[in-house]
Amino acid sequence: MDQIEFFDIPSPCQRVCQMDRQGYCIKCYRSRDERFNWLNYSNYQKQEVLRLCRQRAIRRYYQFLQQQRQQNNQITFSQIDFNF
User: Fold this and answer.
1) Which of the 8 DSSP states describes residue 19?
2) What pTM value is reported for the model?
3) Cα distance between residue 32 and residue 17, in whole Å
4) How far apart are the C-alpha atoms of 65 and 70, rounded to whole Å?
5) What DSSP line would sit under 22-81, residue for residue?
6) What is the pLDDT of residue 69?
7) Calpha distance 43→9 (Å, rounded)
8) Average confidence (pLDDT) per 10 residues, the chain, 84 residues
């Protein structure tokens, strides 16, 4: 059973729409299908997409950390954009 939402869940779009090698937007972390179908999704489906986007952002962050460690550079959290 879906939980009733009082407000519609806004799109996480950051108006960049550039894809990475895996086919996810580099700013909002959604797939092509998730972007095109956003308006047709229920609030439950939108919450699930946002959960997946958070996982993708975290995965990308750790990949970035690994690359930086390999290059022996230090990074700060301000270099990573988690705003979606």
Assistant:
1) B
2) 0.73
3) 9
4) 9
5) TSBBTTT--BHHHHHTGGGS-HHHHHHHHHHHHHHHHHHHHHHHHHHHHTT----GGGS-
6) 84
7) 6
8) 69 92 94 96 96 95 88 60 62
CB 26 within 8 A of CB 20: yes
Torsion sign across C-alpha atoms 78, 16, 64, 36: positive
Amino acid at 14: Q
C-beta separation of 65 from 28 below 8 A: no
What is the distance between the alpha carbons of residues 18 and 76, in angstroms, rounded to a whole number?
24
